[in-house]
Amino acid sequence: MIRILDRYxxxxxxxxxxxxxxxxxxxxxxxxxxxxxxxxTERGLSIRVVALGYVYMMPQFILFSFPIAALIATVFxxxxxxxxxxxxxxxxxxxxxxxxxxxxxIFGAILSVAALGLAELTPIxxxxxxxxxxxxxxxxxxxxxxxxxxxxxxxxxIRRLDVDAKHIYGMTIEREGNGAxxxxxxxxxxxxxxxxxxxxxxxxxxxxVLPADxxxxxxxxxxxxxxxxxxxxxxxxxxxxxxxxxxxxEMGRFIRALQRSGGNPFxxxxxxxxxxxxxxxxxxxxxxxxxxxxxxxxSGPAYGIGISLAITVFYLxxxxxxxxxxxxxxxxxxxxxxxxxxxxxxxxxxLLARVRT
Length: 357
Fold this sequence. Notes:
The chain is an alpha+beta fold and 357 residues long. Helices cover 60% and strands 16% of the residues.
């Protein structure tokens, strides 16, 4: 009986989830196309280019639809079982509500993992979309006379950076020592060339090491590689991508660079945490929706739609509030990003505890 019940619950949940997960992105496409139709026309984009742009946006739309589709699938599956007395029959056979609905949170966990994968894929496809849609017209291929501070405190003064050629013309290095294990360093190179394997190769310069004991080691070099200088030409350009186009680790590096420069990237910290929060929300909303749907034994499909919309609106409202608090630094951004999930998880635990098994 248990295996039959598990197959039945899994089949119903999966069928409904796939239906809504495929339908919701089409609504996102329609809404976005309506909002940007004038922009596409003014820029002279062909139907083929616009359509391909939406293909590249599809992973993001699917990711956004995961929590909603999982919630609707959960509510309709559980409410249907309750309304048709299938849950009552399962309980009469010695199967508790928790055991009867066990496939749903298991599937929710699997979907959360899949959503994490989509969250890492989405920035790549959005970059591709930006390129074909001509949204990189403001790209800067070079930068002159700037200073870059690395994570270890080393300061790189760069006269000119050519990103396309992966070349630096004129570079000084300053690192302040703090004892015997970390001597002070002064260096200069006429140029440096980037290679994806070796990193930056400095050419034609001098290098001075000043230990804490007052001695000095100085030498000239024709070629020198600093293994700790790992920043790529694009990272040195300091012309960041849109947050949606940065993967989790990329955004983390950019946030740390801003912090080293004295900035307070609260909004970026919130958006970085969001890349994990939204996928995990799929599981948490499933846990919240299952006992809530079970509480209305005689409600029909209209109830399922209504409760799904109400939960979605409430969650989005909480997320807006959390965004405002985290982006301004009122609450630590990562904590603020997890606040809606935390409240829904607490509510799920209360509802599950009150279910009659």
